[in-house]
C-alpha cells in the first residue's frame, strides 16, 4: 500500500505535508519535480507527485538565460503563484534566487515573499555558512530545504556544472555541511551531482530526508526538472532521463518517472556518477 494514497483518478488524495515526507523516510521514496506553471503543477498532482519545486532553473529552462544567476524575486513569485494555483495537494517548495539570501535578514524578507506567494517551504543553496539563516527562518516558521553539492548559483565559482565531491577534502566538507545543516534546523536536504557513494554517505549521515539529483539511488527521494523528463533539454544532463520517449504522453511520462523512483529503478547505473 503506497504511503500517500491516490484518489480514484490516480491523483493525490490528501495534502502532502513536510510531516508526510518525514514519515515516509526509510519506508518509501518520495518523488519531486521541478516545474514552473499551473497546468504542469496540476498534472503533477494528478500523477501523485508528492513535492513540486519551483526551481530557479526556470532561468534556463523557460526564460532562455545560460545560468540561473539573472533570475529575480519577481520572476520566482510569478511562477510560485502559478504553480500554487494549479496544485493544492503536493508540497510546494520555492527557490530563493541568487543573492536574495546573502544575509539572514535579507533571507527572512525574501523567504516571506515566497511563502506569501503560495510556497510551503523555501530552498536555499549552500553549506555551513547558512546555519544562522536556517535557524532564523525555521524559528520564525519558515521550513527550509538546504541544497548542497552542485549548487547552480555558484556555477562561476565551480568553473562550470561539474560533479562535486570527487576529491576527499570536498567530500568531507559536504559531509560536515550535512551535519551542520541538520543541526541548524533544515527540514529537507537536496544533494546535486555527487558520486553515488557520497550520496549514500550523506543520506546515512542525515537525520532529515535527502532528495537526490545525480546523487545515486540511495537517497530518500529523487527530483528531476520537468524539461528533462519531457525531452525538452537540448543537451540533457547524464543524471536525467527522457521519460516521454517511452511513455508517449505527459501524464504517462510523469507516472513512469514516479513508478521508477518508487521501485528504486531510477536512477539506473547510467544516470549515476562515480
Ligand atoms: O532549480 C532547480 O530546478 C533545482 C533542481 C535542479 C534541484 O534546484
UniProtKB/TrEMBL annotation:
Alphabetical list of Gene3D superfamilies matching this protein: Phosphoenolpyruvate-binding domains
Q: Report the subcellular localization.
A: Cytoplasm
Needed cofactors, names only, are: Mg(2+)
Q: EC?
A: 2.1.2.11
Query: Which amino acids does the record list as binding Mg(2+)?
Result: 56, 95, 125
Tell me the InterPro entries matching this sequence: Pantoate_hydroxy_MeTrfase, Pyrv/PenolPyrv_kinase-like_dom, Pyrv_kinase-like_dom_sf
Alphabetically, the GO molecular function entries are: 3-methyl-2-oxobutanoate hydroxymethyltransferase activity
Check the record and name the Pfam families matching this protein. Answer: Pantoate_transf
Functional summary from the UniProt entry: Catalyzes the reversible reaction in which hydroxymethyl group from 5,10-methylenetetrahydrofolate is transferred onto alpha-ketoisovalerate to form ketopantoate.
Full protein name: 3-methyl-2-oxobutanoate hydroxymethyltransferase
Which organism is the protein's source? Gilvimarinus gilvus
Lineage here is: Bacteria, Pseudomonadati, Pseudomonadota, Gammaproteobacteria, Cellvibrionales
Amino acid at each position: 500500500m503506497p504511503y500517500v494514497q491516490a484518489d480514484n483518478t490516480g491523483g493525490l488524495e490528501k495534502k502532502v505535508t513536510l510531516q508526510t515526507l518525514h514519515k515516509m523516510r526509510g519506508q518509501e521514496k518520495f518523488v519531486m519535480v521541478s516545474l514552473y506553471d499551473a497546468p504542469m503543477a496540476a498534472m503533477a498532482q494528478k500523477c501523485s507527485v508528492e513535492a513540486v519545486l519551483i526551481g530557479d532553473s526556470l532561468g534556463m529552462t523557460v526564460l532562455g538565460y545560460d545560468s540561473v544567476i539573472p533570475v529575480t524575486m519577481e520572476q520566482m513569485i510569478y511562477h510560485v503563484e502559478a504553480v500554487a494555483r494549479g496544485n493544492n495537494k503536493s508540497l510546494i517548495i520555492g527557490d530563493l534566487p541568487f543573492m536574495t539570501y546573502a544575509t539572514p535578514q535579507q533571507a527572512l524578507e525574501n523567504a516571506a515573499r515566497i511563502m506569501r506567494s503560495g510556497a510551503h517551504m523555501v530552498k536555499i543553496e549552500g553549506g555551513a555558512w547558512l546555519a544562522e539563516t536556517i535557524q532564523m527562518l525555521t524559528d520564525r516558521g519558515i521550513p527550509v530545504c538546504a541544497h548542497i553539492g552542485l549548487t547552480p548559483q555558484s556555477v562561476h565559482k565551480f568553473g562550470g556544472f561539474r560533479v562535486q565531491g570527487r576529491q576527499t577534502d570536498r567530500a568531507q566538507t559536504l559531509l560536515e555541511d550535512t551535519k551542520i545543516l541538520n543541526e541548524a534546523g533544515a527540514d529537507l536536504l537536496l544533494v546535486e551531482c555527487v558520486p553515488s557513494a557520497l550520496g549514500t554517505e550523506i543520506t546515512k549521515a542525515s537525520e532529515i530526508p535527502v532528495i537526490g539529483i545525480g546523487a545515486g539511488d540511495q537517497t530518500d527521494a529523487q527530483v528531476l526538472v520537468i524539461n528533462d523528463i519531457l525531452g525538452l533539454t537540448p543537451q540533457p544532463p547524464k543524471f536525467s532521463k527522457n521519460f516521454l520517449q517511452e511513455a508517449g504522453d505527459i501524464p504517462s511520462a510523469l507516472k513512469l518517472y514516479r513508478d521508477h523512483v518508487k521501485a528504486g529503478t531510477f536512477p539506473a547505473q547510467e544516470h549515476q556518477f562515480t
